[in-house]
Design a protein that fits this description.
The protein is built from 43 helices and 28 strands. The protein is globular, with a radius of gyration of 30 Å. The longest helix is centred in the middle third of the chain and has 23 residues. A hairpin with a 3-residue loop joins β8 and β9. The strands form 7 sheets. Strands 14, 15, 16, 17, 18, 19, 20 and 21 form an 8-stranded antiparallel β-sheet that branches. The chain has a 5-stranded antiparallel β-sheet with strand order 5-6-12-8-9. By secondary structure, the protein is an alpha/beta fold. It is about 45% helix and about 15% strand. Bound molecules: flavin-adenine dinucleotide (FAD) and iron/sulfur cluster (2 copies).
Length: about 950
């Protein structure tokens, strides 16, 4: 009879809270739900989650785990495809350990903490002209800790190698050793002797490797890349060079041997020139031969997509010839920059084109040198994941044979075999990958809830892995790791003897077996823990949305992240009460929706959940707002007296007096005394332009309506006047039809009924106009989103028509014939302008036009800032709902603006202006794009100071 153990869930978290403090330990429903998944097909719900902030936290957790036998799973971004960052015990998230500790430019290395995002690391290294080379395609979201533990690599492995080739040293906590500085030690170095005395488990490992060196050599996979099993091969290589090369053992060990708190990584020079080529082959077999030829030119990347993949992504859409059997993407880098170098990269591209003449290509090679054109060539390859995710409602891309490696020259043969195999199974499959290394990613589309597809998956798993081993002499894992998905096959890949050696190494370093059990070294079948429910949902748990979610950026904790929220609000045990904390934390910035390859709109799901519990206090405010005869006089009274009350002492009272009311909106909501409030307009925009508002209900022959929204009407922010002036310069006399709030702020507090009511009003008021121009990013998005609001309802058609007619002013200006500019292009000193791209305008698909119109202005030098596309943290009323978090979010933006050296930060949204003005406090002028256009059109010299940014 099975022993029934008491549920220790809460005691684990309680113990850990006592040990390391309450803020870093969570075990509530939302947190456990969010951490139950990674980007794999699995789900395992943990008992407790620790978000480590120091090495002491790591040590405490591992010691506790070893003492109590509760498993511990390290976790970084959770983007692995194998189930290696989920576990049934404690999840130890290292994301907050994300600093670059040291960079040595001369010796080209950096000492870095494991929580840093790969793209972030390279962004921060940019000024030094260096990069960390291995580049997984998930680089925007994955973190160094996960890359180290998985021995990741990517398209440019050919040039830079895998992570294991780029690590000098690691600092880790090992259960049987304590803190360990793992670096290569010369065998003759007396410090090694001391190390082995201090750490007997290491002596055991070294002894095992020495004793079994012949076996290890004999079982080494004969391929250029392998992440399966423990890298005892690297240790044997070290012995050949008279080294105990410790980092090699830990890189790729998937959190099963120790916890990394720091890594010293090798850096390389950023390439100075790059050429990218797209080659379409008529015959798959010839691709294999061409790869052997192309490798002689030392490419930095060689990527292949098979014909199934080309069909799936859409040949016509990406200009791929119908008779292409496979497409090859080749890239060549040059390091040091000089005139001669440019020539040499061109010469290399010419040599490549020459070489390709031997083969039957379906079209001439396309070669690009500049960044934009090169990115266009990568577009088809990058469209792959989105296409696979969206391809079918039921059949999803399932990663279970996703990462095999054969010798590069046999990859065509492997692809042919795979196409036949999946053809026989009648399964659609995408086969693509790093052909230069013989590494194929195989992603079949299956409905694992269908028993027949499930059987196909199990058959494919066994058959393909076995064939890769026996017929091709390859490896089952090139870069994604073994995790839970390949653990079952590791024994078969290496044979009993070597597998037992892996087990002995594991036991030496993790004697109580608490580090990530079930991963890499495990006999559990790969079908255990499959998350059937999740695999029938839209989200692929890829984590891309987390990389842009401003809340995740601040908290670095999965329960405060877009992907986590998807899991939480779609869980069967979800209730508003058990998840209110997280459901109320989303800014509704829509950044997640903009990047999601599976077309999931997490913010919309959250808004629907909020609509189940509309906020009553916010409802009173909106009800007041809906009565302009009462609301507007009150607001004007406040505007007339703003000079009196908008001063430090009265503001302190205002904060105190309004707090009890605002607390009923959110426990963090307040009107902070230190916040720079927008100046309220004594005469509202509609009062200032009576000639444009007359005859409500009739267009007066006007074809363009200006939907000013609330902010431009009520605030003295200069936006409304500027929009009208710009439209007039374009020869348009706009109408200001009666209008209600577009709905965005109302929606964020769950009042779906009020949103629909306002939207109906706006639909009717805007119906007669050919074009509806807005100056507000949120209004633009909301009006364009009305069709979704009325899906299946009688208003849907009218909403769709309106959506087509709505334009942000930046779109309008970009699409209109040029206007004569009064400002002299030559005399004015260039005003350095940087553009903050408002989230809602990005979500509406308007990203190029604002930059285009700004760049075309005389006297303006447009500077692209880092992170221009990241949320600034204002998000309508969020700045009042949670001021402290809003400020933390803004910090990244502040740094980017400072670094840009701009005089002016331009934006397309009055709400963003409030956040920027408050955050920058006059150091950099904040302007709406309409103001800059108006000034250039009229020749007005731009103000150098921000008149809005006076401290209270
Ligand atoms: C769309 C997509 C594309 C991808 N493309 C690639 C690709 O091109 N190449 C590639 O190699 N991979 C790719 N991956 C897989 C994955 O992104 C990488 O393996 C990545 O490096 C994992 O990093 P992570 O931060 O998400 O780690 P996690 O998933 O959080 O963890 C991965 C492993 O690292 C361990 N770990 C994390 N931190 C530590 C630590 N501090 N100490 C010890 N162990 C730790 C975990 O326990 C786990 O075993 C892709 C994934 C997706 C979703
Ligand atoms: S919501 Fe989209 S981006 Fe986010 S994890 Fe799911 S599939 Fe990936
Ligand atoms: S809307 Fe913004 S804050 Fe909310 S989940 Fe998406 S990215 Fe995060």
């Amino acid at each position: 009879m099975e022993l029934v153990l008491p549920d220790r869930t809460h005691s684990v978290a309680a113990d850990l809270r006592r040990a390391i403090g309450p803020e870093k330990v969570k075990d509530d429903f939302p947190t456990r739900t969010a951490y139950a998944v990674d980007a794999s097909i699995y789900k395992v719900t943990p008992q407790a989650i620790v978000v480590a902030e120091s090495e002491t936290d790591i040590q405490t957790v591992v010691d506790y785990a070893a003492r109590t036998g509760v498993p511990v799973t390290p976790r970084a971004a959770g983007t692995n495809l194998t189930g290696s960052a989920i576990g049934s015990g404690i999840i130890l998230d290292i994301s907050r350990l994300n600093r670059i500790l040291e960079v040595n430019r001369e010796e080209k290395w950096a000492r870095v903490q494991p929580g840093i995002v790969y793209a972030e690391l390279n962004k921060r290294l940019a000024p030094s002209g260096l990069i960390f080379g291995p580049d997984p395609s998930s680089g925007d979201m994955c973190k160094l800790g996960g890359m180290l533990a998985n021995n990741s690599s990517g398209p440019h492995t050919l040039r830079y190698g895998s992570v294991k080739d780029n690590v000098h040293a690691l600092r880790l906590y090992v259960e049987s050793c304590g803190w360990l500085d793992a670096r290569p030690y010369a065998l003759a170095d007396p410090r090694l002797a001391e190390l082995l005395v201090a750490y007997p488990p290491l002596r055991e490992v070294l002894g095992l490797v020495r004793e079994h060196a012949a076996l290890i050599r004999a079982r080494r996979p004969a391929v250029s890349k392998n992440s399966c099993g423990y890298n005892l091969f690297g240790l044997v290589d070290g012995l050949d060079r008279a080294l105990f090369d410790l980092p090699k053992l830990f890189v790729g060990s998937e959190g099963t041997l120790g916890l990394i708190s720091e890594a010293t990584v090798r850096l390389v020079d950023r390439p100075k020139a790059t050429a990218t080529a797209l080659l379409h082959f008529r015959s798959l077999e010839e691709v294999g031969d061409a790869v052997v030829d192309l490798l002689t030119l030392s490419p930095s990347a060689l990527e292949v997509m098979d014909s199934n993949t080309l069909d799936l992504i859409g040949r016509a859409q990406h200009g791929i010839p119908s008779d292409a059997a496979a497409t090859l993407l080749a890239e060549f880098d040059q390091e040091s920059g000089s005139h001669g170098i440019e020539e040499s990269i061109t010469a290399q591209a010419a040599r490549m084109a020459d070489l390709c003449r031997r083969y039957r290509l379906a079209a001439d090679p396309v070669v690009a040198f500049d960044r934009e054109q090169r990115e266009a060539l990568w577009k088809a390859r990058k469209a792959l994941y989105p296409t696979l995710y969206r391809y079918d409602q039921r059949k999803k891309p399932i990663n279970y044979v996703d990462d095999v490696v054969v010798r590069a020259e046999r990859l065509s043969e492997l692809i042919r075999y795979l196409e036949d195999f999946f053809g026989g199974q009648r399964v659609r499959v995408a086969i693509f990958g790093h052909i230069g290394n013989g590494n194929a990613h195989i992603v079949p589309l299956l409905d694992v809830n269908d028993p027949e597809d499930f059987a196909r998956m199990v058959e494919g798993y066994r058959e393909i892995h076995q064939t890769v081993l026996t017929r091709f002499g390859g490896s089952i894992c090139g870069e994604h790791g073994d995790g839970r998905v390949r653990a079952e096959f590791v024994r078969r890949m290496f044979g009993e003897e070597l597998y037992n050696l892996f087990v002995r190494v594991k036991r030496s370093l993790d004697p109580s077996g608490v580090l990530n059990p079930g991963v890499k070294i495990s006999d559990t079948p790969f079908t255990a823990h499959i998350d059937y429910t999740r695999l029938s949902k839209a989200c692929a748990t890829c984590g891309k949305c987390n990389s842009v979610c401003p809340v995740y950026d601040v908290f670095q904790s999965e329960d405060m992240s877009s992907r986590g929220w998807y899991e939480i609000v779609t869980a069967k045990d979800y209730s508003y009460l058990n998840s209110q904390r997280v459901v109320e934390a989303c800014l509704n910035c829509k950044s997640c929706r903009t990047v999601c390859p599976a077309d999931v709109d997490v913010s919309d799901l959250i808004l629907k959940r909020r609509a189940e519990h509309p906020n009553r206090m916010a409802g009173y405010v909106f009800a007041l707002h809906a009565r302009p005869w009462l609301f507007e006089p009150l607001l004007k009274a406040a505007a007339r007296t703003q000079r009196l009350w908008d001063r430090p002492r009265p503001r302190a009272w205002l904060e105190r007096l309004t707090r009890p009311f605002l607390r009923r909106i959110a426990h963090t909501a307040r009107i902070p005394r230190e916040m720079v409030l927008p100046r309220l307009a004594i005469r509202h925009l509609r009062d200032r332009y009576p000639e444009l508002t007359r005859n409500a209900g009739s267009t007066n022959g006007r074809r363009v309506a200006y939907f000013h929204g609330c902010a431009a009407n009520y605030f003295d922010d200069g936006v409304g006047d500027a929009v009208i002036a710009v439209l007039r310069r374009h020869g348009v006399e706009p109408a200001l039809p009666p209008q209600r709030c577009s709905g965005t702020p109302i929606q964020t507090y769950g009042h779906a009924g009020l949103v629909a009511e306002g939207a109906r009003y706006n639909l009717a008021a805007l119906a007669p106009y050919e074009t509806v121009v807005t100056g507000c990013a949120s209004c633009t998005l909301m009006l364009k989103d009305y069709p979704a609001l009325f899906e299946g309802k009688p208003e849907q058609d009218a909403a769709a028509q309106l959506a087509r007619r709505v334009k942000h002013l930046a779109e309008f200006a970009a699409e209109s014939p040029p206007v004569r500019m009064e400002r002299d292009r030559t005399t004015a000193p260039a005003l350095k302008v940087t553009y903050h791209s408002s989230c809602h305008l990005r979500a509406a698909g308007v990203t190029k036009q604002p930059r285009q119109v700004l760049a075309a202005l005389p006297g303006v030098e447009l500077i692209e800032m880092e992170d221009a596309d990241r949320c600034a943290g204002g998000a309508g009323t969020y700045i009042l709902k949670d001021y402290d978090t809003a400020l933390k979010i803004f910090e990244r933006k502040r740094q980017a603006i400072d670094q840009s050296g701009a005089d002016v930060v331009a934006t397309s949204c009055p709400a963003c202006m409030i956040q920027l003005t408050n955050g920058l406090r006059g150091r950099v002028r904040v302007a709406h794009i309409a103001e800059l256009l108006r000034d250039a059109y009229t020749g007005a010299s731009p103000p150098t100071e921000d008149r809005r940014a006076s401290d209270p």
